[in-house]
Design goal:
The chain is an alpha/beta fold. It contains three helices and seven strands; from the N terminus they run βββαβαβαββ. A seven-stranded mixed sheet has the order 1-2-4-3-5-6-7. Helix 2 packs across helix 3.
């Protein structure tokens, strides 16, 4: 287990394998250990990085603070990916982690190569990744938005 200091906290993660980075984000009722059953197959051709979000194992949290939120977890994941400094990554999220991953894609599509969502929680609207595309209409000198990451969903 390693840690990476982001936004005032140490985020624990496991890193295994070699190749393109695949970052795995867990759901509400678990931590990075939830990915252990699939690490073997995933690491055959990938560099897999399974993170634990702020306030999840192995961190101890007394429940006192205002830093347990989707917004904080999104900011932490953006900072985590930036600190890895690997270029665009594949990001896979399950449940709450799917919602967080989707919000990362909305806010920073430049950090992602591919987005994989497994039973994502929260309200998801893929059209929001590009924002309001009508702002890039005829007669305007705005550049087109970057292409969105590829979205793969399973479950809901």
């Amino acid at each position: 287990m390693q840690t990476l200091h982001v936004n005032g906290t140490d985020m624990a993660y496991l890193e295994l394998g070699h190749g393109r980075p695949l970052i795995c984000v867990h759901g509400s009722l678990c931590d990075f250990r939830i990915w252990s059953a699939v690490l073997g197959p995933l690491t055959e051709h990938r560099r897999v990085i399974a993170v634990s979000l702020r306030h999840f194992f192995p961190e101890r949290w007394d429940g006192v603070s205002d830093t347990y939120s989707i917004a904080q977890h999104v900011a932490d994941m953006i900072a985590f990916i930036e600190r890895l400094d690997t270029g665009p990554v594949d990001l896979m999220g399950h449940s709450r982690g799917g919602h967080i991953s989707f919000r990362v894609a909305q806010q920073r599509p430049d950090l992602l190569r591919r987005l994989i969502l497994a039973e994502p929680g929260g309200e998801l609207d893929a059209s929001q990744i590009l924002g309001n595309a009508t702002n890039f209409g005829a007669g305007q000198n705005n550049p087109p938005p970057p292409p969105p990451p590829r979205i793969i969903t399973r479950g809901r």
